[in-house]
Amino acid sequence: MGPVVLILGSGPAAVAAKRWDRSAFTHVVAINNAWRLRPDWDVSIHPEDFPPEHRPAILGAGQRRIKAQDFVPVQNRYGGFVYAGGTMAFTAGYWALGALKPRVIAYFGCDMVYAARGKTHFYGTGTADPLRADITLQSLEAKAARLQLLAAAQGCACVNLSWQDSRLVFPRARMEDLATVAPVVPDVARMQAAQAREAELGYLVPSGRYWEEASRFDPAALRDLDSLWLAAHRASVRTAPAPGTASPYPLPGAAASGFRRGA
Predict the structure, then answer these.
(1) CB 259 within 8 A of CB 90
(2) Separation of alpha carbons 57 and 207, rounded Å
(3) C-alpha–C-alpha distance, residues 150 and 158, integer Å
(4) Which of 99, 75, 101 is CA-nearest to residue 3?
(5) Does 123 score more than 80 pLDDT?
(6) Rounded to whole angstroms, how far apart are CA atoms 95 and 50?
(7) Which residue in 238, 72, 233 sits closest to 168, CA to CA?
(8) Which of 116-125, 200-209, 252-261 has the lowest mean pLDDT?
(9) Quick count: other Cβ atoms within 10 Å of Cβ 180?
(10) Rounded CA gap, 120 and 115, in Å?
(11) CA dihedral 76, 260, 105, 44 (to 10 degrees)
(12) CA–CA distance from 245 to each of 103, 180, 241 (Å)?
């Protein structure tokens, strides 16, 4: 049985994770401020512009901090940020997928739906980073679909432990489901069509600073690409997976990356 990774965000509901049984997860990956929710996290992951005073000052035994120099090379193996989406909810997912080789990635507190009034994050009011005007984030649903399908190609199921409205398109799950959940079986033809379009566009920014070259990216082309990933996802989720199976297909080659923003 492979690792079961909890990716913990800063949504208001994330406080519920304080009470969870840690034994359900082999790894807890905390995005930005989420390390404050419980002391037994394994990984604190944040972008370059995350304020130093908000980072954990002391790392306990077995804990580590993942920064741009760590996650950008991993992200590049999965196509980079122009295609994956330049916000930390997705960055953390791809890093976990590549570095930890999990069986399950379970998200919580990463729904990317923000209240018009009251708290937007568990700690109060924060920036709705995934909703900013960014060419890589035109469809959060498409970016989530892409991550789910690439994870499935690796034999990893992506699920959402949240009970709230969500921009993530992953299936909902309960804690007790984590032992048996299986990845979707991707529609290989549609998946390959999306990958081929990525290769054709060639939006490669090896430095990861895609915003410095944003003028050469066609927003309409990226919207069309999002549509391809959503079509692949719709076709895939209609196929009931057998336990422990996933359809293998090639991962995208090294491409653009990004690490400026938080989530």
Answers:
(1) no
(2) 28
(3) 10
(4) 101
(5) no
(6) 17
(7) 233
(8) 252-261
(9) 11
(10) 6
(11) 120
(12) 11, 12, 7
